[in-house]
Specification:
The chain is mainly beta and 395 residues long. It is 2% helix and 64% strand. It has two domains: 283 residues, Lipocalin; 87 residues, Immunoglobulin-like.
């Protein structure tokens, strides 16, 4: 049974109207986006202004449906416990339980994660994250360790390097049979005011670090970040996404995502934030646009391709949703593989019209049997595009 949200909310968010944006870096944004609600977050506070609950809902054609909620608890002003639940037919079910401990300076030193095992009907160990700091209190290392089949082992870690107070390098590594292997790293650049103006991501390819993508940040005269331009590398850097940010005072009230298409920008998503009289955000909504621009301009290195969102939730139990957007009609194939590389489920292999689509995997293989807990790979193919995403299924 779907739950109807407050009619005032629905009226306000469904009647914002259409608008035209002529802001551009490499071209003009043409046409009008048609907005469709997708997600919202409602935040509640206690008497001293601490967040105690965040409720997430998704939009299903006509009504908002409860999806997930987080319940937060504090000890001496520091977040000590966080419970996550997911909703099915308006009923909440336990999902994750996170416990955090701190040192005497208030720095997080250990986060302990558990998940609710529907098989054993009890909380089960999932993993924990430990953090290290230097003498100046700067985070230098964050390591995550997990339990797989009752075996405890490190899985990933992040290493941070500084120049003075400025973060210069962030390296992400994963643990394999050969020890720690570097996967990604990010370089940070700053202007004379100490504002981060560029973040560049690299990955290991053919045993060498190679550029992958970068973000360029633009600020207003008050030091507020008003634009993020995301570029990927081909023959040269080319823009793919930009985020335009609007403020009321210092409150971020809207983030507009535009995607590049043949030299022009089109509006793809927006996040709208609402604040109470004490400048606390109490509501946030994500809308998506189904509009595709019409343009004859041809830019060889800007090829429209499928846009894939991270599966949510991840880790998951009992199901996860894979959302993707097609700029043109094309064939899509989505397959689930186990860690040994064996395909366990074919979710879809068919022609799709342009627009937004989603597929749900409920942890069942092609034979109709529930798979074992563990790590799985989602393989998504559309034309020459191919992407693999890791997901964790927990019973």
């Amino acid at each position: 049974m779907k739950s109807k949200r407050n009619s005032i909310y629905r009226y306000a968010y469904r009647n914002w109207g259409l608008f035209i944006l002529f802001l551009s870096v490499t071209g003009t944004c043409q046409g009008q986006p048609v907005w469709q609600p997708m997600w919202n977050w409602e935040t509640s506070y206690d008497s001293i202004g601490q967040i105690v609950e965040i409720v997430e809902s998704d939009y299903d054609f006509e009504y908002w449906s409860l999806n997930r909620r987080q319940e937060l608890h504090y000890n001496e002003g520091l977040l000590s416990e966080k419970f996550t639940q997911y909703a099915e037919s308006e009923t909440w079910y336990d999902q994750f339980w996170i416990t955090t401990t701190y040192d005497t300076s208030g720095h997080e030193i250990l986060r302990y994660d558990q998940y609710w095992s529907t098989l054993d009907t009890q909380w089960a160990d999932w993993g924990y994250r430990s953090k290290l700091y230097d003498e100046n209190g700067r985070l230098t290392e964050s390591t995550y360790e997990s339990w797989f089949d009752d075996i405890h082992r490190p899985t990933s870690r992040n290493i941070y390097t500084y120049n003075g107070d400025e973060l210069q390098l962030h390296t992400y590594e994963e643990f394999t049979n050969d020890g720690w292997i570097s996967i990604y790293r990010w370089y940070f650049e700053y202007d004379s005011l100490g504002q981060n103006i560029e973040k560049r991501q690299q990955s290991i390819q053919w045993e060498m670090w190679r550029d992958l993508k970068r973000s360029i940040y633009i600020y207003d005269s008050y030091g507020l970040q008003i634009e993020e331009l995301i570029q990927e590398i081909g023959v040269d850097w080319y823009p793919t996404i930009r985020l335009l940010k609007t403020y009321e005072g210092t409150n971020l009230v809207e983030v507009l995502q535009q995607n590049s298409y043949q030299g022009s920008w089109y509006s793809r998503a927006r996040w709208t934030h609402y604040f109470d009289t004490e400048n606390r955000e109490f509501y946030q909504q994500k809308d998506v646009s189904y509009w595709i621009p019409s343009t004859t301009e041809y830019v060889p290195h800007l090829k429209p391709q499928i846009q894939v969102e991270p599966p949510f939730p991840n880790p998951f139990n009992p199901q996860t949703t894979i959302r993707y957007h097609l700029p043109t009609e094309s064939n899509v194939k989505i397959e689930i593989y186990n860690i040994e590389g064996r395909m366990v489920r074919s979710l879809i292999a068919a022609d799709h019209v342009a627009g937004d689509h989603e597929r749900i995997w409920n942890g069942v293989d092609d034979m109709g049997d529930i798979v074992e807990s563990g790590l799985y790979l989602v393989m998504i193919q559309s034309g020459k595009y191919q992407k693999t995403i890791r997901i964790l299924y927990l019973k």
